[in-house]
Automatic annotation (TrEMBL), chain A:
Highest taxon in the source lineage: Bacteria
Domain ABC transmembrane type-1: 81-287
Biological processes, Gene Ontology terms: transmembrane transport
Compartment(s) of residence: Cell membrane
Keyword Transmembrane helix carried by entry: yes
Family: Belongs to the binding-protein-dependent transport system permease family. CysTW subfamily.
Bilayer topology term: Multi-pass membrane protein
SUPFAM superfamilies: MetI-like
Full protein name: Spermidine/putrescine ABC transporter, permease protein
Transmembrane feature ranges: 29-57, 77-104, 116-139, 166-187, 194-216, 222-245, 266-291
Cellular-component GO terms for this entry: plasma membrane
Alphabetized UniProt keyword annotations: Cell membrane, Membrane, Transmembrane, Transmembrane helix, Transport
Record-linked PROSITE patterns: ABC_TM1
From TrEMBL, chain B:
Protein name: Spermidine/putrescine import ATP-binding protein PotA
Task of the protein: Part of the ABC transporter complex PotABCD involved in spermidine/putrescine import. Responsible for energy coupling to the transport system.
InterPro entries: AAA+_ATPase, ABC_SmlMolc_Importer, ABC_transporter-like_ATP-bd, ABC_transporter-like_CS, Mo/tungstate-bd_C_term_dom, P-loop_NTPase, PotA-like, Transp-assoc_OB_typ2
EC number of the protein: 7.6.2.11
Recorded family membership: Belongs to the ABC transporter superfamily. Spermidine/putrescine importer (TC 3.A.1.11.1) family.
An annotated GO cellular component: ATP-binding cassette (ABC) transporter complex
Domain named ABC transporter: residues: 10-240
Automatic annotation (TrEMBL), chain C:
Cited Pfam families: BPD_transp_1 (PF00528)
Tagged with keyword Cell membrane: yes
Any GO BP: transmembrane transport
Membrane-spanning parts: 15-40, 77-96, 103-131, 143-162, 194-220, 240-262
Name assigned to this protein: Spermidine/putrescine ABC transporter, permease protein
Domain ABC transmembrane type-1: 71-259
Topology relative to the membrane: Multi-pass membrane protein
Length: 302, 361, 266
């Protein structure tokens, strides 16, 4: 009934026993997490830390920044970075361009229709990247479906170069990244109450104005989440550029594979990995700082 | 059921709980008598539910002692406390039928199948759910779910029963019915019961004693009548029932308002500012009756009369603009002399109805 | 929100939106579907629709020792990954959900780190580590690497299951005399089991479809299906891959429907 002085709390009745009890429970719960944590520690943290360590030494085992200096000195590296960012920006832009209308339509459809349409977004998500890349190769390559049709129709005489080049990479990657943008965007659009739009129209805004002034700003956090996820995944993407780039489009991840696999230059490859990780985490941090948001929320949607 | 004979008292000492750096309970003491129905009453955030969770063992206090019938339980896990608990949303197990829900605590105690069946049957009788043992939980009405939750909490004859706003999800009529039923069930079984609610009416209807909680402390612990008639703080007076608060000043052992001495039944307070608490139904239009020996007379101007069917409320302003409300039943003699807005009236407050509480602000 | 009360704008005026949406949806789904008829083609030429029909590419798939072995390796790895990742992820999700875990935010980030970290880095890193441990080209190594990637999906799926579960039920079970594990097993588990099953399906498909890390750490006897497909795609487009792809698409559809089915019953 009586309030006691504050210091009473820290060494009150049974305080030690209760603290020990709390510690025991926390340790028990930590124990439940420990298999996962140990696994992440050994399979992810340890090797990446090791690679980081390697990247600090040059070929002669001397501590140096040579592995990093290379990135600004050698034209081939600079070209790789430029290509990577070009692809990432283009793919992200295309995903926004075609993903936003799709998510908007899904959010406006009645629930049953929306869930049917959503299957078409989720199914590719669940289908192997290899299968989807293979499909595009079948469609776009020299003797692929598009070229065969166009030649059969007499529209062209020579096959168009659609695969094994920059365009092929962009098409293939856009296809693979699109669900990563649409799903979080759709989820955030679903939370926008239609009453807002009705209210806006009731207040005299024509549908277009209501959309741009009310709906669009409210959908921005979801859009931003999708954009960040897509952009980050693009930066480190390997499979599609490796298969559809025809060796001409060398992206960051491919460069890492070549440097470590082909040339066994672990220092250089590691340095590439470290910078890639830093850029990824930096972008995520920036995003989180800007929006205070759940950057990993897209994965929950899968 | 044999709970009555063995219901132990609960002695709570020095319970402290912080969430992060925010203190929720700071050194709280409370004694619940054997077989008592005690209610923790307070607004949300007053710490009443936290205290209940600490009693049940779901929230760990930072310090304190909980003694149940001579046994320290503060570090015991919930399943070894032998406490029956009813949650606000009932927390019935949807994947079990009524029988298995109620048999759950018996199963944990490895009671034989025959005895389980018998006891479940008996408790279903007790809560008037005969014949519903095979129902799925989602086939029950709100009131029935409430009864199943209650049956499950008492079937293993726990020494203590804790209830966290168990009736708040029911509609008004059913809620009032269940209040009376819970009360009579408690009388029959006599288990020590701690009940949490934010509904002061419910608390007054059901409890042997009420602990009014505010900001992690118990402001007052008393029988409902005492709590209503003799609130000890302004918070209690405001939380339980309606009250007029009139600022008064105490000096030289007397209480003064607007230059006049105020007669109160409260012991003479220390000097300084105080509040005079007057319940609206204790304010009388002076013409009602003759002047009592110890009555206070107040000049006021009627501002508005609000008719409420069985009763009316008269809002008036005292000379210095202080507002005061008066409530009375709509009896024909009262109605005959009802003042109109703008009319000056004399208000009477008897000394024993004028309660003095400290000015906490 | 009520579906019938829409905006005061007619479906007709939105026709353009539906057209765009339908186009984008077909962009998403048609490429994968086009594979299916092509896998029944009778010729080596990739033509749509195929000029003749046959099962020769399925025969080629099932009769090739290499493809069959690779499929078995992938299946083994996926089953083992599921077996390990599901309990590990569920236990972690339980602890994260309890609210009594210190540093829960940090632990959450660590456990789900493999979703954020570029896969290529995990591939190179594990290859580098396994070279020293002798785990390259072993099933053990493969399962370990896949489990790390599958655990976050199980954690997130089960956590989302916990979000729609009323923890008071476990509390009440404990107050009624069940110990913590017993309360989880008797009351919580039966109610979140659909999330756990969905999580397990995610784990399975994650492992089965994993390409990049497998490229680095699998080979020889333990070459995974995806690794063999990747090499085959680099060299030449063989319609056998259309047959394999069709099988994978069917597998995806089956797993997705299972997950949806379980998800609805939650």
């Amino acid at each position: 009934m009586s309030a006691r002085p504050a210091e009473f709390v820290s060494h009150g009745l049974n305080a030690d026993a209760l603290r020990a009890d709390a510690r025991r429970e926390s340790l028990g719960l930590l124990g439940l997490c420990s298999p996962g944590l140990v696994l992440v520690g050994i399979i992810i943290v340890l090797p990446i830390g090791w690679l980081f360590w390697l990247s600090l030494f040059d070929e002669n085992g001397q501590l140096s920044g040579a592995n990093y200096a290379r990135f600004v000195e050698q034209a081939s590296y600079i070209r790789t970075f430029i290509t990577t960012f070009e692809v990432a920006f283009l793919v992200t832009g295309l995903c926004v361009l075609i993903g936003y209308p799709l998510a908007y339509m899904l959010s406006q459809l009645p629930r049953r229709a929306a869930s049917v349409c959503l299957i078409f977004v989720v199914l590719p998500f669940w289908t192997s990247v290899l299968v989807r890349t293979y499909a595009w190769l079948v469609i776009l390559q020299r003797k692929g479906l598009v070229n065969t049709w166009l030649i059969d129709l007499g529209l062209i005489s020579q096959p168009l170069p659609l695969a094994h080049n920059f365009a092929g990479v962009i098409i293939g990657m856009t296809h693979i990244m699109l669900p990563f943008l649409v799903l979080p965007l759709y989820a955030s659009m679903k939370t926008i109450d239609a009453d807002y739009l009705c209210a806006a129209m009731n207040l005299g805004a024509p549908p277009t104005a209501a959309f741009w002034q009310v709906f669009f700003p409210l959908s921005l956090p979801g859009l931003a989440a999708g954009v960040v996820i897509v952009f980050i995944l693009c930066l480190g993407f390997f499979v599609t550029p490796a298969l559809m780039g025809g060796g001409k489009v060398v992206m960051w991840a491919m460069r890492m594979e070549q440097t470590t696999g082909l040339y066994s230059n672990w220092g250089a490859g590691s340095a590439l990995g470290v910078v890639l990780l830093a850029v990824t985490l930096g972008l995520l941090g920036l995003f989180r700082w800007l929006l205070g948001a759940r950057a990993t929320s897209v994965w929950g949607a899968r | 059921m044999s709970t009555a004979r063995s219901a132990p008292p609960i002695n709570i000492r020095g319970i402290a709980k912080r969430f992060g750096s925010v203190p929720v309970l700071s050194g709280l003491d409370l004694d619940v008598a054997s077989g008592e129905f005690l209610t923790l009453l307070g607004p949300s955030g007053s710490g009443k539910t936290t205290l209940l969770m600490i009693l049940a063992g779901f929230v760990r206090a930072n310090a304190g002692s909980i003694d149940i019938g001579g046994e320290e339980v503060i570090t015991k896990p919930p399943h070894k406390r032998n406490i029956g608990m009813v949650f606000q949303n009932y927390a019935l197990f949807p994947h079990m039928n009524v029988f298995h829900n109620i048999a759950f605590p018996l199963k944990q105690r490895r009671t034989s199948a025959a005895e389980t069946a018998e006891r479940v049957e008996k408790v279903l009788d007790l809560v008037q759910l005969q014949g519903l043992a095979d129902r799925r939980v989602d086939q029950l009405s709100g009131g029935q779910r409430q009864r199943v939750a209650l049956a499950r909490a008492i079937v293993f004859e726990p020494r203590i029963v804790l209830m966290d706003e168990p009736l708040s999800a029911l509609d008004k009529g059913l809620r009032e019915h269940m209040q009376i039923e819970l009360r009579s069930l408690h009388r029959r079984l006599g288990m020590t019961t701690v009940y949490v609610t934010h509904d002061q009416r419910e608390a007054i209807t059901m409890s042997d004693r009420i602990a009014v909680m505010n900001k992690g402390r118990i402001e007052q612990l008393d029988r409902p009548e005492t709590l209503y008639a003799r609130p000890r703080t302004r918070f209690v007076a405001g939380f339980i029932g309606e009250s007029n608060f009139i600022p008064v000043e105490s000096r030289d052992g007397s209480v003064w308002y607007a230059g006049k001495k105020v007669h109160t039944a409260s012991p003479s307070p220390s000097s300084g500012r105080h509040w005079l608490v007057v319940r609206p139904e204790r304010v009388r239009l002076a013409a009602d009756a003759g002047l009592g020996a110890n009555a206070n007379m107040l000049h006021a101007t009627v501002r508005d009369i609000v008719y409420q069917g069985d009763s009316f409320i008269c809002y008036a302003n005292l000379a210095d603009g202080q507002q005061i409300a008066l409530r009375d039943y709509c009896r024909s003699d009262v109605l005959a002399r009802l003042p109109v807005a703008g009319q000056p009236v004399q208000l009477r407050v008897d000394a024993e109805d004028a309660i003095l509480v400290a000015d906490e602000t | 929100m009520n579906d019938d009360i829409g905006l005061p704008i007619s479906h007709w005026r939105r026709l353009w939106l539906y057209c765009v949406g339908a186009l984008v949806l077909s962009f998403l789904i048609v490429p994968s579907l086009i594979i299916v008829p092509m896998s029944f083609s009778g010729s080596t030429l990739l033509r749509f629709p195929p000029e003749s029909w046959s099962l020769r590419w399925y025969e080629a798939y099932f009769q090739s020792v290499e493809w069959r072995d690779a499929t078995i390796v992938s299946l083994k790895a996926a089953v083992l990954t599921t077996v390990f990742a599901t309990p590990i992820g569920t236990a972690a999700a339980y602890a994260l959900n309890s609210g009594a875990l210190r540093l829960a935010g940090f632990i959450n980030v660590v456990l789900t780190a493999s979703l954020i970290i570029p896969v290529i880095l995990i591939g190179i890193g594990t290859f580098f580590l396994y070279a020293r441990l002798g785990l390259n080209n072993t099933l053990t190594g493969l399962v370990l690497a896949h489990t790390v990637q599958a655990v976050p999906l199980v954690v997130l799926t089960v956590l989302s299951g916990f979000r729609s579960y009323d923890m008071n039920q476990e509390r009440v079970a404990r107050s009624l005399g069940a110990g913590r594990f017993s309360a989880f097993w008797q009351v919580t588990m039966p109610q979140i089991r659909f999330s756990i099953v969905s999580g397990a399906l995610f784990a399975f498909i994650t492992s089965f479809d994993e390409v990049v890390v497998s490229l680095f750490i699998s080979g020889g006897e333990t070459t995974t299906l995806t690794r063999r497909m990747f090499s085959a795609l680099r060299d030449q487009i063989d319609p056998t891959i259309a047959a394999i792809s069709t099988c994978l698409i069917v597998l995806s559809i089956v797993l997705l429907s299972a997950a949806q089915l379980f998800g609805r019953r939650r």
